[in-house]
Each structure stands twice: as structure tokens, then as C-alpha cells.
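Revision sheet: C-alpha cells.
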Amino acid sequence: MRNHCAIALLAVGGLLSSGCNRPAPATADSSTPSSTTAGSFDEKAARGQILGNDSAYVRALVSKNVDSLMVYYDPSVVSLGKTATKGTSDLRTSYNQAVKTNVRDLTFQSGGVNFSNDHSMAWDHGTFSQTSDGPNGKPVKTSGTFLNVWKNVGGQWKMVAEISSS
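Predicted:
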């Protein structure tokens, strides 16, 4: 059960953590991180970038590509689930364990993306479901909720906090 919760947490965090280094608007089919440009803030484009990052996270987790997940996180990230994980080094260790459970059928439904008044922070939330290998390799279905907190760092959205429950 603990592994499934960790996987669910990682999956949720990943979903919410996708997107950071691309000057063009991200799409749900792009695994390239996204960015915002200086000047006036385009909330619709930023929302699309964050949701695109979430989609890229799903693809990276299912394909077991931990390096692709980590680009969406700020070095000081805090990930909360059954336990607290602090920093990208510990988070990478958690994801390396999570991908060993053969995560599949991972889906998420966004409940929305919101922004701080100065557009330096954003948060998105929603629900997720997934299947992974449990004890003795038997498939285990998990579902839950997530909340991701994003920080705009130099025009790139980096996840600074993620919370999931399952």
C-alpha cells in the first residue's frame, strides 16, 4: 500500500510538474518544457503551458524516463504524500523507485489552474487514476487528488510543491 501511495504521489506531482524550457507555447503532445516570455502576462498561454507540462509528466512517468520528470521541479521542491520528500535529489530517488512498479493507465483530470495576482506563482489541482504492479506483481488500481504549486522562474514554470492523496 505504501508503494502505491508513493507512486500515486509521484504520479500526481509529475502531472503537475510538467513544463519549463520552451519559448513556444507547449501543447499536450510536447515533451519539451514550456516557458513564458517577459512583458505582458498571457494567462491563457500560461495555463496551457502548465496543463501541457502535466501531460508531458504523464508520458515521462509511463515511459519510465525520470530525467524527463525532473526538469519540471525547482531544486527546493517539497512533495507531500504519505511522507515528505524535500529537494530534487530525494525526489529523483522516489521516482526511480516508483517507475519500477510499472505505472500504466495513468490519467488525470484538471480541476483548474489559478495564478497569484503578480503572476509569479500558480497552482493546479485535480484527480488522477493509475494502475501499477503491487505485491506479487498483481495489478493495483489507485486514484486520488492532487495539488501542484508552480513558481515562475525566469519565464519557466517550476514546481515548488506538490501534494497528493489516494
